[in-house]
Amino acid sequence: MTRPFPQLPEFAGSLYSPSRVEADVFDLVVEGTLPAAISGAFYQVSPDPQYPPMLGHDIFFNGDGMVSAFFFENGTVSLRRRYVKTARLMAQRREGRSLNGLYRNVHTNDPKAAANNTTANTTVLKHNGVLLAMKEDALPYALHPQTLETLGVHDFDGQIKSHTFTAHPKIDPATGNLLAFSYEAKGDGTPDLAYFEISATGQLLHEIWFQAPYAAMVHDFAVTEHHVIFPLIPLTVDVERMKRAGPHFEWQPDLPQLFAVVPRRGASDEVRWFKGPANGFQGHTLNAFEAHGLIHVDMPVTCGNIFYFFPQADGFVPSPETLSSQMMRWTFDLSAASNTVEPCALSEWPCEFPRCDDRYIGRPYEHGFVIAFDPQRPYNPANGPMPFQFFNVLARLNVRTGHSEGWFAGDSECFQEPIFVPRCADAPEGDGYVIALLNHIGDCTTELVVLDSQHMPDGPVARIKLPLRIRMSLHGCWAPAD
Predict the structure, then answer these.
(1) pLDDT in tens, 124-172
(2) For residues 112 and 117, what is the distance between their CA atoms, to the nearest angstrom?
(3) What predicted TM-score, i.e. pTM, was given to this entire model?
(4) Nearest to 95, CA basis, from 55, 54, 141, 133
(5) Is residue 157 part of a domain?
(6) Is residue 346 situated within a structural domain?
(7) Running DSSP on this structure, what letter comes out for residue 156?
(8) Are 244 and 312 in contact (CB under 8 A)?
(9) Is the residue at 399 inside a domain?
(10) In sequence order, which residues have a C-beta less than 8 Å from that of residue 240 and are 6 or more positions away?
């Protein structure tokens, strides 16, 4: 590399300095006792740019996809890390430099850039014998789940015809079906959405195509036994703006939080639209379920634009201290005449990256796991300004009682997204282990921590020491050994 990464917050510090390390590390050092019942693989992916940005600046979400796999077996843990060999990354390697401009704006790319612009850097999920690496701007890439070898673009044997594919699919625990969707499904700036239900063995069982009132970000969605719910974030898309070298997304504070509620086996004419308060940012869904004729969707909501890199038209972005975020419940009554909906708070802590017990996806449930920010906890000023996406507590939330409890790891520590592993196949809901990466900002190290979900404030039962630092990641999954 002939030039360094820019000294900007998006490329500096313990959380955001690029790592760029592919590795195989066997039998990692474990402090404490690793429960033998934990057997399988924890996969996660991080945006980790191979080369400094072509324009001299960039956003975190535009990094190349780096997959980490932690293999748990007989009380030991091994680590494998590989880049997803996307067409975009391989074109850059051939030229020895970045060829890509603004996030999701092909009009700003170098002519030598690949036509397929995806980085496959947002989530990974094992399905039908392959590991899918996904970003919501294109179809997934398939990887070998053991070697992490990139196998190529995955269109489900030609069954999926959309231009894009969600980075947040769900697995129906009753059937093993993959539930997924696309937005901007017919290309950049199109208002088309599509919903897909794909069997555990890869057959497309059902699809629904419909249009939103306008093209906007639909980062995550929620599923119940009978419905799917799509939250449209007020980040809109304008292709003409992109052609002028403008951003893909622009915040529109006057727009409502918009939701499409669709029967899972329904049709486009059965879509019901609901409007929530304006100037709100719906985060990732924790879970959703149906009870007594109502549909409940639980997700963190922020009172304004948390993505400072996608400002509104006049360039305004709110100061971080003016934004508040809470776990909220949205309740949809399909029998009501009104199409307005207001959320109610389920917790006090600002939180994100929520996970439930996957055995209860789409079903009535009680427990969720989040990374949270407790402003009452100390932060060491020697670490410099608090980074973007700083979470100092790993917490368990009871959505029925509102009770939450968590572990604060220290004044220089930041958690990444957790996953939940049941104590055994038939364990009660939420009884098991919570696994998460923990970044130590002070000394630029990372470890993997394992907590007993029944005793979160006690801290880890095992700490898995990593000989390298892992950049702030996005999402991942747990794949049992069986």
Answers:
(1) 999 999 999 999 999 999 999 999 999 999 999 999 999 999 999 999 9
(2) 12
(3) 0.96
(4) 54
(5) yes
(6) yes
(7) T
(8) no
(9) yes
(10) none
Structure tokens at 436: 């998460």
pLDDT band at 269 (very low <50, low <70, confident <90, very high): very high
Residue 356 banded pLDDT, cuts 50, 70, 90: very high
pLDDT digits (tens, 9 = 90+) for 439-452: 999 999 999 999 99
The domain total for the chain is 1
pLDDT of residue 1: 55
Is residue 310 assigned to a domain?
Answer: yes
| Structural domain containing residue 370 | 9-480
Quick one: pLDDT at residue 125? 98
Residue-wise pLDDT tens digits, 1-44: 578 999 999 999 999 999 999 999 999 999 999 998 899 999 99
| CATH number for position 122 | 2.130.10.10
